[in-house]
Batch of 2 targets.
Target 1
Amino acid sequence: METRPDVVVVGAGIAGLTAAALLAQEGLAVQLLEAHQQSGGCAGTFRRGPYTFDVGATQVAGLEPGGSHQRLLAHFGLPLPQATPLDPVCVVDLADGLPPVRIWRDPAHWASEREQQFPGSSRFWQLCASLHEANWSFASRDPVLPPRSLWDLGKLLPALRPANLASGLLTAASVADLLTLTGCGGDPRLRRFLDLQLRLYSQEPAERTAALYGATVLAMGQAPLGLWHLQGSMQVLSQQLEQALAAAGGQLRRRHRVSALQRSAEGWRLQIERQEFSLNATDVVLAIPVQSLPDLLGKQLPAGYRNRLKGLNDPSGALVFYGAVKRELLPTNCPGHIQLDWADPGSLFVSVSHEGDGRAPAGQATVIASVFTPAKPWFELEAPSYDQAKADAMAALQRGLESLLGITSKQWLHAELATPRGFERWTGRPFGFVGGLGQNPSSFGPFGLASRTPLPGLWLCGDSIHPGEGTAAVGLSALMACRQLLAERGQTLSITSPNT
Ligand SMILES: Cc1cc2nc3c(=O)[nH]c(=O)nc-3n(C[C@H](O)[C@H](O)[C@H](O)COP(=O)(O)OP(=O)(O)OC[C@H]3O[C@@H](n4cnc5c(N)ncnc54)[C@H](O)[C@@H]3O)c2cc1C
């Protein structure tokens, strides 16, 4: 059987769903192919008995007025999902015997907490705030980054303002350089705090996180921006985007894993794994990690581009623990998000469900804890060693959680662990790589991979592309790729922003 849509989007994570819905709404015939039986990818959910677990992402940015999810959902004519802003945004326990750092939503409250926790650091935070302000207004003008054509440049240059040219002087700097510049490089506690927080968003510690990127992620939790906890589960975001796609006449085909892409005179031919089914389309949007490209495209990738992909550092993998406990066992007023500096298997990012948020029965709570791990070694282990390594990691991770939450190993109502192997199966990401490429000074924004590829009619979006990982960011990467694709067809796509 053969059909011919205008565009095929590959991968129904948040990036692919957004791209497919945007293009369908502009009148294109769109098919969205998803390998899994459900959409959402790293922002999906799964059920275990009475529990609903968020697979990867547990908190959402971009729901504030002008935020990326807000703008996109408004463009689709959909309401914002029901959600509560996180306050504290996160509680960071540096395991040093001192009170944990509470990152508050209110900027003044957070400034006073910072001064108490990291005395004398205000110059560092002020510099971050100025950089963030310049970044944020630049981002809200929807620049195309990195530019690969005159059209792209025409969308980048008008977004720049004098403040961006000034902060551009710090393009090659890291967050650690900002500490040194402001005379705050000598506070090891502040440095440790930054290392933990930055790794969550950039996969890199302070010395390897680009200053311009770090300045913004460090400000994401405070009003008027913020991070939110979704009512129901993370899946509601994908469900809304599926709704937008269907309303615009686009088609989502689940259980359709694309196994090869072939360039032809008419465009692209997509082969679907284990099916007598292929599709031809003029344009293809790949909303999957860029590490998948060599397998899908083989020799069609120009040598320079293939080498560029080969030269990328491997992103991290993740170990993710999914557990449940009686709520009465948790500390009083247990925060929804906690970071714990823990040696083995590494620092934990913990998300605890709220009572009545749809994830656990009344009086119980789900507890999800993730920790970064090098991904590839997990694929080198044979069965008995793999099982042992997984059991050891799970026990060590549970020890961290039990010490943090004051519970015992017998009190878990549910406990299971996903390794990078499980993530590869669930999300189709090579080696279960999580997040994007890592936001260090040589690979972020202007130095990253572009959504416009050297192959005509082939576009990229998702967390390998600017502005990086997180559901709010991948929505923006999808918008950027769709604007480029539509411009090639003589169409203009713009969505409302506070600055337009
Ligand atoms: C443990 C963890 C915690 C995280 N926490 C947060 C958080 O709290 N907040 C936040 O905003 N972000 C978080 N993130 C990051 C965020 O989830 C991702 O950056 C984002 O969801 C990626 O979206 P995507 O659409 O680019 O890719 P993905 O979500 O990976 O989606 C890609 C989709 O493509 C499909 N696919 C892959 N290959 C093929 C193929 N060949 N053919 C067809 N389909 C294919 C996959 O099945 C998948 O559905 C977290 C990620 C992880 C792993």
Target 2
Amino acid sequence: MSLATRSTAIRLALPAPRGPLSSHLIDALGSGAPVEHRRDVTSADPFGDDLQLALYVAYELHYAGFDGVDDDREWDPDILGFRRDLERAFLDAVRREVGDIETDVSATVEMDELSTEPVDGDGVSFRLRDTGTWDQFRDLFAMRSVYHLKEADPHAWAIPRLRRTAKAAFVAVEFDEFGGGRGDAVHQELFADLLEAADLDARHLAYLDTAPAWALSPVNLMSCFGLHRALRGAAVGHLAATEITSPPGSARLLAGLERIDAPEACRHFYREHVEADAVHEQILRTDVVGALVGAEPELERDVVFGIRGFLLVEDKFDDGLQSAWRAGVGLRG
Ligand SMILES: [Fe+2]
Ligand SMILES: [Fe+2]
């Protein structure tokens, strides 16, 4: 598919609901009926399929939306109210699992710890580097597509909430993510190229229906951080954690793809992230996080919350994918 035909106008239909919360929203969006926002969300598993899909769909109204759904529903107050309940349940659970953040915590120390990685781990990228099959790589691509096809968009919401050096440096990183002025170099498009080279469906959200909660929650967390001014410190911490952990993880995936002689477009996406994110990491450390906590020291704990929240949902992604492989669960429909 050429870039010209790969239009943002291509939107997929609403996904199938996975329980009472997601059907509450998806049925209303599909029929054009109002959503009654007072619905109890507290009995749902905050990391479960039903709540995570409902939240993903609610957030997607701010991105590409869905085929057949009126774009005006982005600002439907009842949907926003329902989404608020979903995100409160999700955020409370993330805070609970992350645990208390010490009052004297240091974002610098936290970022340094992210950089000290074991040579040999047992996470997905280590396994794919050493023994990964092409089908396992294709599972990873399909599950990451709910993020990489809108990579950098969730963080972009944070830009108007930043000032001066932190803003300028944050935008410099996002400029690269958005292709540095070139449409075909937008990282979202590089990932669509990767999907096509891997003979997968490159349409926006094509794998939403098969993506379990563990693949949705990392994206929901970044949308939540980005869309709330009150969580701008967490959004910055999240981007810092993303950029700091990206070069070594991307290098392992690249090594695995080279080992199995995978198509060049697949290697290119990760090679780009080994190189670009090494620079992004330094910008994030000094000019974004450093400048932000220098100007607004009260945000330091939020920055650390963003980093630890990132690690929490990324660990769930890793466990979920490896569990699916062990159980022989198909992830690509
Ligand atoms: Fe990127
Ligand atoms: Fe980056």
